[in-house]
């Protein structure tokens, strides 16, 4: 199952989540959330060692990450993963910190 996660919830509880950024390398290098793991949607989906953390997928706006999250649930034994609503755009709109080139 894929649930939505707000940027506010992720920001307030960041240490509880493993953040997977499914944008392309060029997008990631321009701007990303510190600690996010790059795993482009264009590459084969891999599994992630989450160490008890909840997994949240993110992209620019939330569309590609939703596809990745659905694919991940289908191919792995997770009951629930999350899709970051609004992606990096919403994160930036809230003024939350990013790593920029």
Helical proportion, percent range:
25-40%
For the secondary structure, the number of strands is: 7
Any idea of the CATH class?
Alpha Beta
Number of helices: 4
Number of domains: 1
Radius of gyration based on Cα positions? 12 Å
Helix and strand element order? EHEHEEEHEHE
Mean residue pLDDT:
95
Q: In this structure, how is the largest beta sheet organized?
A: 5 strands, parallel
Per CATH, the superfamily is Rhodanese-like domain
List the uncertain runs. Answer: none
Proportion of residues in β-strands: 15-25%
C-alpha termini separation: 34 Å
> What's the CATH architecture?
3-Layer(aba) Sandwich
Highlighted features:
101 residues; Oxidized Rhodanese, domain 1; 5-stranded parallel beta sheet; two-stranded antiparallel sheet; globular
